[in-house]
Design goal:
Elements: H1 9-20, H2 25-32, H3 36-49, H4 66-78, H5 84-90, H6 100-109, H7 130-133
Length: 141
C-alpha cells in the first residue's frame, strides 16, 4: 500500500474542471488514477468553499486531551479536598504547559465544582501517583 500523499492544487483544479465539463466520479478516478472517494472529496470541498487549497484550521489546539480531562475529573472525585494546584501537580508530564484556569475549566466542564482547601496548609498534601488514584481491577490486565 502506498503512503498517503496529498494531491497537488493543480490536480485538484483539473478534477474540478473535468467535473464541471460533465465527467462522473468514476471517470475522473480512472483519468487521474485516484480513488472515487478522493475525487468526490476534492469536488465536494470545492463546492463548499470554492477553492481547492487546504486552509489552516480555525482556533487554538486544546491544551488538555480528553483522556487528561478524564484523569483530572477522576482525581478530583477521589480526593474531594484537592486543590487545583494539587491536581495540576498530580498530572505530571501531561500538565507541563497548563495553567490553573485550564484545570478549573476542565473540572467544571465535567460537572464538578472546584474546591479549595480552607483552614489546612496546602503543603501537607502530596500528589498521589495515578496508579493509586484509580484502583486496578482484580486479576490485573
Amino acid at each position: 500500500m502506498l503512503p498517503r500523499q496529498e494531491l497537488s492544487k493543480d490536480i485538484k483544479d483539473a478534477i474540478v474542471g473535468q467535473h464541471q465539463k460533465g465527467k462522473t466520479y468514476t471517470q475522473l478516478a480512472h483519468m487521474f488514477q485516484v480513488s472515487c472517494s478522493t475525487a468526490h472529496s476534492a469536488i465536494s470541498k470545492w463546492k463548499s468553499t470554492r477553492h481547492t487549497i487546504n486552509m489552516p484550521r480555525v482556533g487554538c489546539p486544546q491544551k488538555l486531551s480528553a483522556r487528561a480531562k478524564v484523569k483530572l475529573s477522576r482525581a478530583a472525585t477521589v480526593n474531594s479536598m484537592a486543590t487545583q494546584q494539587w491536581l495540576l501537580e498530580s498530572q505530571g508530564k501531561v500538565a507541563l504547559n497548563i495553567s490553573l484556569n485550564s484545570v478549573t475549566r476542565a473540572i467544571q466542564s465535567s460537572g464538578l465544582h472546584s474546591s479549595h482547601l480552607e483552614g489546612s496548609p496546602e503543603d501537607q498534601m502530596t500528589p498521589l501517583p495515578m496508579s493509586q488514584v484509580r484502583p486496578q481491577p482484580p486479576g490485573g490486565l
